[in-house]
Task: inverse folding
């Protein structure tokens, strides 16, 4: 869970600095920042005002003030963290999930980027699980 708070902290830092999702079941870092800015920006400004950025301070601030954080922000933090975690897991697991498809459809192709391009090109002939893993990893 500490890794999730780091991610949330990094996203919150960008929200403060900037203040201002595809068919995948996951969310990109850019989309996460946009969603967090929309749903948590006011909480961060109110509860963490004047806080120096970096070193997970924003995430720590939100965690310490959890009782004061709006329900919308709390819900968004949880869903964004879960989605990012799912994306990271998909990126790690895709080669295992797609191993059979890689062997059948991209035999002889060397290099991760080339293999991924091969799988993307042959999207209609690879398994649903491999297609979903590629989408969840954010590569489509």
Result:
């Amino acid at each position: 869970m500490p890794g999730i708070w780091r991610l949330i902290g990094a996203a919150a830092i960008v929200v403060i600095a900037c203040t201002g999702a595809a068919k995948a079941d996951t969310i990109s870092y850019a989309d996460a920042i946009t969603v967090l800015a929309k749903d948590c920006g006011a909480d961060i400004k109110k509860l963490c005002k004047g806080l120096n950025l970096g070193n997970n301070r924003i995430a720590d601030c939100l965690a310490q003030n959890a009782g004061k954080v709006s329900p919308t922000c709390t819900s968004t933090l949880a869903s964004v963290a879960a989605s990012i975690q799912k994306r990271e897991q998909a990126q790690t697991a895709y080669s295992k999930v797609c191993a059979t498809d890689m062997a059948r459809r991209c035999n002889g192709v060397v290099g991760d980027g080339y293999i991924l391009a091969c799988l993307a090109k042959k999207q209609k002939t690879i398994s649903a699980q491999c297609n979903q893993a590629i989408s969840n990893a954010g590569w489509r």
